[in-house]
Design a protein that fits this description.
The structure is a homodimer.
Chain A (H helix, E strand, L loop, with lengths): L3 E4 L8 H4 L9 H9 L2 E5 L4 E3 L7 E7 L1 E7 L5 E8 L3 E2 L13 E4 L3 E7 L1 H9 L3 H25 L2 H16 E4 L2 E4 L5 H8 L3 H13 L3 E4 L2 E4 L2 H9 L1
Antiparallel strand pairs in A: 1-2, 2-9, 3-8, 4-7, 4-9, 5-6, 5-8, 10-11, 11-13, 12-13
Helix pairs in contact in A: 5-6, 5-8, 6-7
Chain A binds a DNA duplex through helix 7.
Chain lengths: ~240, ~240
DNA sequence: TTGGAAGTTTGTGCTGGCTCAAAGACCCGG
DNA sequence: CCGGGTCTTTGAGCCAGCACAAACTTCCAA
């Protein structure tokens, strides 16, 4: 399942880490210095849990590098991925939702570098730092929108369309252009995709094989490259 | 489709309307007076749209009486109900999500009485009124939780379980105890239920007929009474 | 009271995607 | 270079739930 590889405060975190992250981008250099000095940095290996559903929300996090899956576990043990979070976003912000426990579990999809702060600092950040609250609520709003879309998708679309959409979302969020297409730049298994789209890994596998034959995608183990995004868009809307 | 029946400010709204609604419950009487004097009250008949997806969020609303369905329309014209909102909650609070358009359409499920304020007052309410922001974010948090649950439900459960769950949620939110069970106290059609559970009205109809034969529920046109909630809970978890 | 609209029930087939099953490909440690 | 773990592919059969269709009930307006 993976575990924490290191937990320490690096000698000195560089201000440039945060200057371009929306919730902090309007701040002065010395403010960022203060915030960084209050942060703990930590590295998680792929598959490690950053925080878990239901536990007291003691810290909030900023994902500096990597990708995180936000999942919930059903009573019968199935995992459902509610959301993918790319680098540069806050997570575990239970406080912004008036909650004191985490509403879901966050799992790093690849190796991840994360800053975190004790939740008691949350209110003072909101009070003291211009734009922090606003930007945070934009993030929340954006995620609500995403969730809404997922509900509509699950409710009305066929499996093939859902998988196509999931792929498109992933390359938008985390795609890296390569010579002959766009590659998802973190390891993703058929199983992961099936959890994102509420189907089985078998069906995902069949679909990808089919698309590969048509030249839409190319995939190796844990790697997917989309060669013809436009065709996928068409598929997704059919 | 229904239309607005009346739009006017009543001679004088009574303070007691708001004193027990969470976002306002911590306020002084004269504060509530001010807020009420800034409000417009309006009645919508069943099926009328209070606001619509994508339009500029010019006002925010408090549902005083009635029930509201929050729906999204797919490109192909199907409706999907994302959420049900009971009386006593704010709605159309795009601002709290950092948005300037409404993310979904709100339709009154029964006759509804609604107060509304111009969105430009939002920031001052947040700034001036103790607890307003906090309570609002709790509402948002709660809705995020609900949406999460719906995603998990859609992703993992069978139609029968989803319909059972939807019924249970409805009686929890809006149930009224009667002699031999709990009745959903606003008009709801099979069609509505099918939109809530992402299935067809046919399937819902069959399920309800079946349950009626087993004595679990009783239903007439637009009315559903649950006689044995516990059995439904069991069904929902099977 | 009558006609129409809205909502509901029920039947009959069909099929998308699931389950079950088994084997093949790749990856890493020893 | 072998062996076990992880990931992927493919096949076969089946069934829950959908599409389509038609009749019935209730409500309401004229």
């Amino acid at each position: 399942m993976g575990s924490v590889l290191s937990q320490k405060t690096f000698p000195r975190l560089d201000e440039s880490l945060l200057t371009h992250m929306p919730p902090f981008s309007r701040l002065e250099k010395n403010q960022i210095r203060t915030i960084l000095d209050q942060a703990t940095s930590r590295r998680y290996e792929a598959g490690a849990a950053i925080f878990e559903e239901g536990l007291p929300a003691e810290r909030f996090y900023m994902l500096l590098d990597g990708y995180v899956r936000v999942v919930r576990i059903t009573p019968t043990g199935e995992q459902v991925t509610a959301l993918h979070i790319p680098a540069g976003q806050l997570l575990g912000i239970a406080r912004a939702l008036g909650r004191d426990t985490y509403p879901a579990t966050a799992i790093s999809a690849s190796e991840a570098i994360v800053l975190s702060w004790p939740m008691r600092l949350w209110d003072s950040y909101v009070a003291d730092y211009d734009g922090f609250a606003t930007e945070t609520y934009k993030t929340v709003g954006h995620r609500v929108g995403e969730m809404n879309n997922r509900i509509v998708e699950l409710a009305t679309q066929q499996v093939e369309q859902r998988v196509a959409n999931a792929l498109l979302r992933l390359i938008n969020q985390t795609g890296r252009k390569v010579s002959d297409g766009i590659e998802i730049d973190f390891p993703i298994t058929r199983q992961d995709l099936s959890e994102l789209t509420a189907t089985t890994l078998h069906t995902v596998s069949r679909l990808l094989s089919g698309w590969e034959k048509q030249g839409l995608v190319e995939s190796k183990r844990k790697r997917i490259k989309v060669r013809d995004p436009h065709a996928l868009v068409v598929l997704a809307q059919t």
